[in-house]
Design a protein that fits this description.
heterodimer, A: 490 residues, alpha/beta, 7-stranded parallel β-sheet, 4-stranded mixed β-sheet, 18 helices, B: 232 residues, Methyltransferase, Methionine Synthase (B12-binding Domains), Chain A, domain 1, Rossmann fold, 9 helices, binds CO-5-methoxybenzimidazolylcobamide
Chain lengths: 490, 232
């Protein structure tokens, strides 16, 4: 074999939106904003923490000196791993640059009923269903619930969701909570699944998701949860839903500056509390549609902004929580497929680490597991493009070409046997002949998506029967205690 | 030599043509959202003896109607509409003390806020600005407002409209609680209650005893005005 200098076997064709100079300027914009405009932090404890670290404080406004930001960025980890609770490392997540994991999104109020296909409130049973279906989907690298449970005690949707989901999938979950209590309950459930606190610390089995408020506000619960996660070394996301033209500037660069700045507050807090704890930033980055006044989940700007922010976040050496696979449509249709295809491909090409909202419809107001299933196929396709072209002696196949010569074919070649399975195989896309398509019932993409989803619902049991009895017991106990807590405060 | 009568007619003609130029300029400046220019224009119209009621009814309100129509037709976008609304509301602040009983346009007062536990504010702010634009005096309480803050504001400002926004299914019940508190305080009948926010529905508004529901900020004003007209 010929050896080459700087030999790369596989070069992923990630795209870049920003030049080095542009990145620097956006980064400096963030530094200036945090230093001179500051951010509101509605949490005395957090302000105290920042003050001790050298921040200027004026009321609830905190001004962050550049060296503190640099210091936080330097202490954030380069790699973090999230482990499936059943020990099967095939679903392990490695958070490092240019490795993308896709998943659904959190908390819309509505859900598309899988029997009636109509929109209704999200129910407790939906959380297990989403977990189970995603458990079977090869391209869902992590799981979120696609809804907020409406039929449990008010204030416990977060805790029930995790309790049900974690037992119905081994794919790592990204959870959320209303406040520190829920955050703690979920943590304890994670520990129950890991076996012990020590085991959880060693091998965290979920990621926590929290949000600052654009522009430049960390409300009490957001930063309080962030601090809890940092204290316990729970990998966490701290990222806003920035609305271009609404809560952040309408110019994209301005949006990036604000989005980065408000997330950085969580980065700094987490690193001050526990240097080296994993913190992921990014969020939903899109625009306010100035005609319909909705926050658009299908806009091309969502893809552009998310890709640009991915570059900025990676420039800061942090992992990126991006957005794709979502749509503004109300029902699965051509628009939902078009919007999801574009955004999934862009997110893939940007190399974002976590890409959420696969299955968000109606601009984030309705979760649709059918959309998630369709997205799974799109992610598979995009992944092929992202893998690029492998060039080496074997793949160049000059010898095989020579042996076959002009006018031959490759169907009998060993080389073909070795390589053809690398071609992507559709599970939903139709490539039948007209006759075969007709014979199979003239099914459209929508028919096939419904069929596949319902088949998974019916036949994929998930890991529910593998959950250790002790973990089950502990989880039930945590739920009971949570109920008591709410009853007491009521 | 002109007779006195002839002189008066000429003067009236002149006055009328100056006034009608003022009024159409006021409309147009309002539509283009140029607040500073509008202010100057209205001031000089008043100085030239224009009737404040006329400025409102024949200049500003037709302007805002046009804005509403253009917005519906997709010829104007949210930030443009909001500029016009702001210009309208500033003009109203200036004109209000000069308006007489019968002059329309003093649409009323609105108290608006996002309910307790809820930090979403942009939809609520849009609604507030649209009401301002329609001539309402708006008291915007902000986000995360406890029930008593709504009740106290109703007592203090005596609004005819109370608007509440909730973006979370978990905070929606707070709106019903505010309505109950208004009842307990014996002031429920003083205000028309309108609610909105992404997860809120017309049905829900009915359930909790709100008078009105609006799916978006633009329609909120229309729905309210229609309701008030019918009530009269
Ligand atoms: C009085 O008369 C009226 C009349 C009409 C009225 C009206 C009043 N008020 C509104 N309208 C109407 O007119 C406007 C248009 O003309 C419309 O207003 P909207 O406000 O709906 O529309 C705005 C113009 C644009 N839309 C928005 O501004 C909301 C967009 C979404 C993405 C959203 C955002 C941006 C935010 N969020 Co939140 N957020 C979501 C939203 C999803 C969505 N698609 O709605 C929603 C509402 N959030 C949700 C959640 C869960 C949460 N959020 C949270 C936080 C936030 C941010 C702070 C990050 C941010 C708000 C920033 C801000 N400055 O307001 C958290 C709660 C914080 C809290 N205590 O309030 C948190 C709990 C998330 C977390 N894990 O922490 C979900 C609600 C789920 C549910 N079951 O209710 C949600 C649907 C997102 C989702 N898909 O999961 C109409 O509703």
């Amino acid at each position: 074999m010929i050896s080459r200098t700087n030999y790369t076997t596989q070069q992923s064709p990630h795209f870049e939106i920003l030049s080095e100079n542009q990145k620097e300027r956006i980064f400096n914009g963030m530094m200036r904003t945090l230093q001179y405009t500051g951010a509101h932090v509605h949490h005395e404890g957090a302000r105290e923490l920042f003050k001790k670290a050298g921040c200027k404080i004026d009321g609830i406004t905190v001004y962050f000196p550049p060296e503190l930001i640099q210091q936080a960025l330097a202490s954030a980890p380069v790699v973090t791993e999230i482990f499936p609770w059943d020990g099967d490392d095939s679903k392990k997540i490695t958070i490092e640059k240019k490795r993308s994991y896709f998943g659904p999104g959190p908390t819309p109020p509505n859900f598309i009923d899988t029997d009636t296909l109509e929109r209704r409130k999200y129910l407790r049973k939906d959380a297990s269903l989403v977990a189970r279906v995603c458990d079977a989907l090869p391209n869902m690298g992590y799981v979120q619930s696609l809804g907020s449970i409406s039929d449990v005690t008010n204030g416990l949707a977060d805790v029930y969701e995790f309790a049900d989901m974690v037992r119905n999938t081994t794919t790592p979950i990204m959870s959320w909570s209303f406040d520190r209590n829920g955050c703690r309950d979920i943590h304890h459930m994670g520990i129950a699944m890991a076996g012990s606190e020590e085991a959880f610390r060693h091998k965290p089995n979920y990621v926590f998701y929290g949000e600052p408020i654009s522009p430049l506000v960390s409300d009490f619960h957001a930063i309080d949860k962030c601090m809890y996660c940092a204290e316990h070394r729970i990998p966490q996301v701290y990222s806003p839903c920035a609305i271009g033209g609404g809560t952040v500037p309408a110019s994209h660069a301005g949006q990036l500056v604000v989005a980065l700045s408000e997330s950085m507050v969580g980065v700094i807090a987490s690193q001050l509390i526990n240097p080296g704890t994993c913190v992921i930033i990014g969020g939903v980055q899109s625009i306010l549609d100035m005609r319909c006044s909705i926050y658009s989940y299908g806009a091309p700007e969502l893809s552009l902004l998310s890709a640009a922010l991915t570059e900025m976040v990676h420039y800061c050496n942090l992992p990126m929580y991006s957005t794709a696979g979502c749509t503004d449509t109300k029902k699965m249709d051509m628009q939902s497929a078009m919007e999801a295809s574009l955004s999934i491909n862009a997110a893939m090409m940007s190399g974002a680490n976590f890409v959420h909202d696969c299955g968000y419809t109606e601009s984030g107001l309705t979760g649709d597991i059918f959309q998630t299933v369709m997205d799974d196929e799109l992610i598979g396709m995009a992944r092929i493009i992202e893998q690029g072209v492998e060039v080496n002696e074997d793949t160049l196949a000059v010898d095989v070409i020579h042996n076959t010569g002009p006018g031959g074919h490759y169907l009998y070649e060993d080389h073909t046997m070795e390589h053809f399975r690398n071609h992507w195989m559709p599970t939903l896309m139709d490539r039948n002949s007209y006759e075969a398509w007709e014979e199979q019932g003239r099914k459209t993409m929508k028919d096939r998506v419904i069929e596949k989803t319902r088949d998974l619902i019916e036949n994929h049991e998930g890991p529910i029967n593998k959950v250790p009895a002790k973990a089950n017991e502990e989880i039930e106990k945590i739920l009971e205690q949570a109920e008591e807590r709410i009853a007491q405060t009521a | 030599m002109l007779t006195l009568k002839e002189l008066l007619i000429t003067y009236n003609h002149k006055y009328n043509s100056i006034m009608s130029t003022y009024l159409s300029n006021i409309s147009e400046t309002l539509i283009s959202g140029k607040g500073d220019e509008l202010k100057k224009l209205i001031e000089s119209a008043v100085n030239d003896g224009a009737n404040p009621g006329e400025i409102l009814n024949q200049g500003l309100l037709p302007g805002m109607d046009a804005v509403g129509q253009k917005w519906k037709d997709g010829d104007m976008f949210m930030p443009e509409v909001l500029r016009s609304a702001k210009a309208m509301s500033n003009s109203m602040d200036y004109l209000r003390p000069m308006l007489k009983e019968g002059d329309m346009g003093n649409a009323g007062t609105m108290v608006i806020g996002t309910v307790a536990g809820d930090l979403h504010d942009i939809g609520k702010d849009l609604a507030a600005m649209m009401f301002e634009g329609a001539g309402y005096k708006v008291i915007n309480l902000g986000i995360d407002q406890p029930g008593e803050s709504f009740v106290n504001a109703v007592k203090e400002h005596q609004p005819n409209i109370l608007g509440m926004s909730a973006l979370l299914t978990t905070t929606m019940p707070r709106m019903g609680e505010v309505i109950n508190s208004l009842k307990e305080a014996g002031i429920r009948d003083q205000v028309t209650v309108i609610i909105g926010g992404a997860p809120v529905t017309e049905e829900y508004a009915g359930e909790i005893g709100a008078d009105l529901y609006a799916p978006n900020a633009g329609s909120a004003v229309e729905i309210t005005n229609e309701f008030l007209q019918q009530a009269q």
